[in-house]
Amino acid sequence: MANANGKAATGFPEKISEKANPEANEATEIAGNIIYHAKYSPHFSPLKFGPEQALYATAESLRDRLIQLWNETYLHFHKVDPKQTYYLSMEYLQGRALTNAIGNLDLQGPYADALRKLGYELEEIAEQEKDAALGNGGLGRLASCFLDSMATLNLPAWGYGLRYRHGLFKQLITKKGQEEVAEDWLEKFSPWEIVRHDVVFPVRFFGSVQINPDGSRKWVGGDVVQALAYDVPIPGFKTKNTISLRLWEAKARADDLDLFQFNEGEYELAAQLHSRAQQICTVLYPGDATENGKLLRLKQQFFLCSASLQDIISRFNERSTGEGTRKWSEFPSKVAVQMNDTHPTLAIPELMRLLMDDNGLGWDEAWDVTSKTVAYTNHTVLPEALEKWSQSLMWKLLPRHMEIIEEIDKRFVQTIRSTRVDLEDKLSSLSILDHNPQKPVVRMANLCVVSSHTVNGVAQLHSDILKDELFADYVSIWPNKFQNKTNGITPRRWLRFCSPELSDIITKWLKTDKWITDLDLLTGLRQFADNEELQSEWASAKAANKQRLAQYIERVTGVSIDPNSLFDIQVKRIHEYKRQLMNILGVIYRFKKLKEMKPEERKKTTPRTIMIGGKAFATYTNAKRIVKLVNDVGDVVNSDPEVNEYLKVVFVPNYNVTVAEMLIPGSELSQHISTAGMEASGTSNMKFALNGCLIIGTLDGANVEIREEIGEENFFLFGATADQVPRLRKEREDGLFKPDPRFEEAKQFAKSGVFGTYDYGPLLDSLEGNTGYGRGDYFLVGYDFASYMDAQAKVDEAYKDRKRWLKMSIMSTAGSGKFSSDRTIAQYAKEIWNIEACPVP
Ligand code: NBG
């Protein structure tokens, strides 16, 4: 039934016949696969084949291919039975999967052609996909980059997480500032996940401990919910290996429904367990200001740990049949468990419980296995982010685990008392349980350090701070336990796929595309950094990315920005230590100076577009005030006819992985300006540098190493160093701080009412006074402001010299090789996990 255009009624070209061939790699055949799925894996009524239908059908055609590779990988690992790593993380910021899957499978051309045959551009279809935003920020995105590298390096590894129905909230910007709206990635469905109906484990909450006649203990009673596995395929780049991200969903069983009560009309009562189970995976990071919120968050953490460990143990035991029973002492030579921050700490007592109570091991044996299996990555030194759980809450929810934690603590304290008398007076801070009568808590980081075979920080400076300060006394007990693993990012998503223009230029000049998996090869660009031809190609790729970004900004904010201005970006979660406030105060000062200038003076300045984006935690008031201030400043500056040719200020709404993929390639300057010692690493700094964006920043986190790698002449450095910070805070307390006049001028101007009627008093007051909670400028904005403004002046000068700027840009990319997550993961594999590649033949 062809219409006049030679198309079937559904809009498919008639000459392409529907197929289901997972191995297709030629355009017509792929188009046939897409039509096949549109027809026979339908999720929509059959009349329409719009962009959304095309997305799902395209994803399903790719999924066939991935499933094939996935099964091969799974079987291969099963056969070879290597030691495997299990990465436990409460967060994964996967973003979109389509472009990444097509790219990793190396099917970019054929897929673009196939879709064109169906009347679509690949980009248009890719844009239909919603981000899987199961994380907050850097920590979650790091986990996702790690999965990509594990697959690419053919490592036998799994990611474990939770299947939140609503990921990180959507940020709306209204007159009031930031408003949060529930995120909806599963509102229709995700084409990438596959439910494994045979992978289900019971997870208990509450209840009590039963002591058996033989003295052994068993956790009984309480609520039991089911953990059901949803697997997401993680393809490696140009390799068959495709590993799994296993996300747990909480469910109750049919017979948990009280039919009698239901028929009595007591619907809510009848389905209590169903509704309690459903709550577990409803949202990422439920607010924990209330007791209920805390309980839910703790349930989530335990749910992840219990389900994952039961799964890991069952895989370990799978091998037993026919080959004799495996000895538990072999467990650590088959299993490495990595805890991504303290969120999965309960893996420790849960593994102990499963080994002792379910499998009959004694304490010493169970402890030996557990402590040789688990390792812990610390991601922050901020005291408020170091998790402490109330002991009473823990006793209520996890009575058996609290017994185990008490025992671990008791034995640790005994050992220290008998072997390290010198640490006796430190025990109150080293012990796991804090018995402070006001608020007895369990210190999760201490539990991790005591129980793990290895503890690592995420950048050299951060790891040094852990060793010298936060964990210094532990270092004296276990000098070999502590390591550094500087973070990294995947060069596939963060350069090859998000900036194909720049990637092609790099490949052309290096005469190979091997840099995509061997990022150190980028140093080969250094010899051409002065080359005019490369510089002009580089500039045109950057210009194209800036143009694309400008269109995006206009579309989402209505603000038109000049692609010839310097694109200056700060995007990250809004937090006082990250100092977006310093950025916007700098903008305010710049605006005031521009206003004071004569028109001919303005013409001599470097036009800038300053973009700031990021989400504020819903209950973090000062962060929300910062968002409001940036928006208000933008409204005034952008509509000021004298100034807006030279300065624009844009708040980029709803920052997420996909927005980052648009912003980073189009950036020229990015700001990583945290108070020294407070940002554990940062990872967007690496993404920007890799994309030839220059950094203005402090000596904090991975900035230190980036500057070392790309050369100090290519980095705009300012600010106090981490070791000066305590002294500067002390001086401030003693009333010795003398602010720079520019700082005072910027604050006065902000308070003057030019930016509207909103009361910024409470925000700006945090910069005043010398002591007191929320005062005394704890983050040293005032102290660093002077050197920050000086560094900004150097940026303006450097940008005027186009050749110099381009050279610096090329040198940034050329020096970014170290920051590949392939390097990071190879180090974890060798130095912490002791696992080896297991490539599918
Ligand atoms: C964050 C740090 C970042 C770091 C990421 C990834 C937490 C607790 N920490 O500096 O703030 O880059 O972890 O390591 O989210």
TrEMBL record:
A Pfam family annotated for this UniProt entry: Phosphorylase
EC number of the protein: 2.4.1.1
An annotated Gene Ontology molecular function: pyridoxal phosphate binding
Positions of the UniProt region annotated as Disordered: 1-23
Entry keywords, A to Z: Allosteric enzyme, Carbohydrate metabolism, Glycosyltransferase, Pyridoxal phosphate, Transferase
Co-factor(s): pyridoxal 5'-phosphate
Reactions catalysed: [(1->4)-alpha-D-glucosyl](n) + phosphate = [(1->4)-alpha-D-glucosyl](n-1) + alpha-D-glucose 1-phosphate
NCBIfam families hit by this protein: P_ylase
Protein name per Swiss-Prot or TrEMBL: Alpha-1,4 glucan phosphorylase
Gene: LOC108812369
